[in-house]
Write a structure and sequence with these properties.
This protein has 178 residues and is of the alpha+beta class. It has helices at 3-24, 64-70, 82-106; strands at residues 30-32, 43-50, 54-61, 112-113, 117-120, 132-140, 143-153. It is 30% helix and 25% strand. A hairpin with a 2-residue loop joins strand 6 and strand 7 (143-153).
Length: 178
Amino acid sequence: MSHNQVTQRIAGLFADACVELFQSLNYDINPIDETEFDVTDVPHGKIAAGCKDFAINIHLHLPFPALAMTYPVFSHILIIDQAALEDWLCELSNRLMGKLKRKLFACNANIAIGLPSHSMGDADKYSTAAADYVAFKYKIDQQVFICGIAIEVFHDPLLLTSQPMSDNGIPDGNIDLF
């Protein structure tokens, strides 16, 4: 596969993982073409991963109302503080990367994952000179957010299967929060 084909394939798997993540939280997620989205005051979650063939960095820009709406609230919690929402953003980033890892594994690519982190706004550049950045904009309820991925392919030709293999029932990873 050429560099562009690998980038498009990984970006397509990432877009599918984004939709699956929010559907798993029981939300209807709709892609949008809206070009205006100011990320200056929007929480930004990120996590890196890679293998010998490529490196990826995923980015989630979710406004606080979207984080609060998707937060797994228990009946005795009445107020969700900002720190809890920032932790939730890291958890969402981790879950998204887990879904993408599972899809890549089914395409014969096994990646190692870093730790998620968060910041406010557009704190760092997403791509280096060698990386391609692809952003997808979505809406759940009336909340607009961005899921983006920076992809750096180290060499051509890289072979990702064109059709994902059966996952043989590989479950998504879970993290127990204490």
